[in-house]
Amino acid sequence: MKLLRNLFDFEREDSPGEVIFFKLFELFVVASAVVLAWEWGLYTLRLSGIVSPQGIARYMEIEFMFDSMFPVLTAALITACAGATYFRFNRYGHLAAFFLLHLQFAARHSLGKIPHGANMVGMTLLGLALAMIIFRDDRLRRRFTLGYTYFFVGLGYVLAGCSKLVGTGLDWVDGRHLWLWVYEKSVDNLAKLGTFELNPLQEIVLGSYATATLFLTIGLLTELCAVLVWWKRTRSAALLALIAMHAGIYFVMNIAFTLSVYQLLLLAFPWAVWLDALAKRFEWMGAVEQLSVRFA
Fold it and tell me: For each of the chain's 296 residues, which pLDDT tens digit applies?
């Protein structure tokens, strides 16, 4: 029960800042889903078939997504459905957008290489969809969506760390693995840009086996400790640690989880508290309360 209170806190009333923050948070998730839908849809137009079926493509034929305008039509439907629910014209748009986005994902990544940068956005969109269907009260929808998101952020990173241990064992933190990944990404960048130069952090990592091993150890421990996102007292620290981990991944391996990092930034800082404090400081509370009533 303590864990449920830490995640959802259904009994607490929302402040005006929390209402406004959630509406902006939902806008970020919806906008990210729409951007991904159009990126994936336009890319799918260049594909002709499935090499390695992913997700829903393992259980149903999605050949209709190729050599046709279906990817563009799907992106347009995702935009319309997600927008309709965001503006509260219906309750089921987010759910439709989620399933259509997964269809886009399966078609776009039918060549076999699967990135992880969009997973957090997809799972949060599903949380928004479930909240709209299960609850009638917008306050409960907000509480459920944020609690659901905290839960799956923590669970997702912990499972990522566990999968590394299952696949490789404690040897995963061997610094030579990081050397290999750095050189692999250098080849990718060289092929894409025609040039590649090591940055200072990469030179430090490649110059010291102990440092490379330390980097991987810190990354693995950060993932395994992500369960701390589930508790209020440790939530911000755990989220900031995950952001720092992603910064390290970017500067060492040139791998950017852009949307995930943006979402972690939204979750890590007390934006709602700051909105309420600014409203009181500059005597905007009346306007903020009116805006929150409209959003609620």
Answer: 899 999 999 998 999 999 999 999 999 999 999 999 999 999 999 998 888 898 899 999 999 999 899 999 999 999 999 999 999 999 999 999 999 999 999 999 988 777 788 999 999 999 999 999 999 999 999 999 999 999 999 999 999 999 999 999 999 999 999 999 998 888 877 777 777 888 999 999 999 999 999 999 999 999 999 999 999 999 999 999 999 999 999 999 988 899 999 999 999 999 999 998 888 877 666 666 677 766 76
Please indicate, yes or no, whether the overall pTM of this predicted structure exceeds 0.90: yes
Name, in order, each residue with C-beta under 8 angstroms of 150's C-beta and a sequence gap of 6 or more: 7, 229, 230, 235, 267
251 falls within a domain: no
In a domain, 233, yes or no: no
167 is a domain residue: no
AA identity, residue 229? V
Q: Is 57 part of any domain?
A: yes
Tokens representing 261?
Answer: 């990092």
Token pair, residue 108, equals: 């776009």
Residue 55 has phi, psi (to 5 degrees) of: 55, -125
Q: How far apart are CA 262 and CA 155, in angstroms?
A: 18
Structural domain that includes position 102 = 13-134+282-296
Closest listed residue to residue 128, CA positions, set 4, 12, 8, 30: 30
**What tokens were used for 255?**
């791998």
Report yes or no: 119 and 157 within 8 Å, Cβ to Cβ. Answer: no
The total domain count for the chain is: 1
Tokens of 45: 């137009």
Short-list 132, 62, 68, CA closest to 100: 62
